[in-house]
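Hello Y.,

Per our agreement to keep a running log of every chain we model this quarter, I'm adding this entry. I've kept the format consistent with earlier entries: sequence first, then predicted structure.
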Amino acid sequence: MLRPVAMEFLPPRDIKPLGWLRRQLEIQANGLSGNLDKMWPDVRDSRWVGGDREGWERVPYWLDGFIPLAYLLDDKDMQSRAAKYMDAILNRQEPDGWICPCPPEHRGGYDMWALILMAKVMMVYAECSGDERIVPALTAALRNFSNHINSCTLFNWGAARWFEALIPIFWLYEKTGEDWLLDLAHKLRVQGFDYQTLFEHYRDMVPQRRWTYLTHVVNLSMCLKSGALISRMYGGDPNRFAKLAIETLDKYHGMACGQFTGDECVSGDSPVQGTELCGVVEAMYSYEQLLSITGDPYWGDRLEKLAFNALPATISEDMWTHQYDQMTNQVQCSRLPDGHVIFRTNSGESHLFGLEPNYGCCTANFNQGWPKFALSAFMRTPGGLASVIPVPSEARIEIGGTEVKCRLDTEYPFKGLLVYTIDAEKPVELEFSIRIPGSAAAAYVDGEQVKCGEFYRIKRTWSGRSKIEVKLVFECSLVARPRGMACLWRGPLLYSLELNEEWRPFEYIRGGVERKFPYCDYELYTDSDWAFGFPSGEFEVHENEVSDIPFSHSKPPVVIETYMYPLDWKMEYGICAVEPNSRKPTGPAVKKRFIPYGCARLRMTEMPEKCEE
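Predicted structure for the entry above:
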């Protein structure tokens, strides 16, 4: 038997994105994510669908985000294209259940990470489409997997990411009740990496210029949910491992934006080290799973930091290009010369914006970020419904045969007003829970002050239409960073010094893959001064309209002005120094503008807090 989760994800048909969140999903659908099957050979011509290109992780990665995106937007064309891929994959499943594009004689050397990914995709597709073929096809695929690893044990990526398979395994078990699925989960636990021991006896405090599975940022982002998942089988505190792991990673490798460095492997706490986009979206998915399993609002705060800051900051506004690595202090994105590549195991092109800078995994995988985030807005609880992430959206559930709808109108995280409208067909008893963000300085529900960082619960009989108004108070604060530096936060948003951005495009062909507008590569330059430090904590906030591009550089939804001291801060080979030469100002304080980190593709975010006068 599996232990129940604290909150259940709603089926995609019962979640509807609204406002700026829907617009963000529309931009994604019109950008790279919505067009990879038309122009990127590794998806368009993949062996998964009978072609001759990559037949491992890229198609499953893409489908994992493309499918929920298609259904959240109710886009019939996208749904049809998703079905075309799923039909091709299901039709190629072997009689023994093997589903990956690999001939029988090569199965022993095929890394089963691709099967784990595809199992997740099959689960997502079933939840979105209701396709009745998925349960028998997934059953056959997992039976084959169970038999396969009896003699071909997990290795490489499959061994590092074994716990991801628990998600579709548990989903299928709850539908069929077949005990062999829990035996498979147990086998995976025994054969896979032991992250518990890794973090209980952590040894990777000092980053190295070497690549390892155990320090890989995406593996570590994924593993955060492993303890909570396995606790559903074996018991224990579902929070214990995740809290240990994230506290350790924050301590030694934490970034201002809420993620930890990894370019590709953990890289310390310098503001000019990078973190991989795949790591950001996988950490988001881990926090979504942790929210569901534990019900702990802490994971909602972690999730918001990445969704509102790290995710949009590393993707262009039109979502046609992205970075492989983002840096906290990123004043230029240009090709780094040999011998001067700051990234420890990635190339000097990793921070360019483009189709597939450094490596193509993020090209396929980044598109899961926004759709799965939208699907986490509301969750079902034993007592009713929870607003888990307060973004503009609508949810529908049934309680004892009575339909209940809940709509949230808001411009959070840019503004602090949340207006809930609950409609019940007939009187129904329901507990409505609202997660009050821990990033707020104060919060009020219908005028009554409530605690931040907790769920506020309203249990009553609901009838007809009811409205609930939540007001969140945001305050500006300088948050300490290593080396006597600080970063500026207001509520759930991190802010960066506003810099002009010049985008220089490069069109070319490499490895048979064409880069052309709008998915060419770009180098970014600025003519803005960026070398400053914070002299005081006095800030002037200006809230603007949220434009058609929510994370717009030219029309940011919030601007903060403050005085800054100019400093002597050097730059070499396209990268600014980790810290200035001196904390002594080189001139009088000047008024500067800060915009949300997610609106800035060039940025200065960590700067000295107490400059010498």
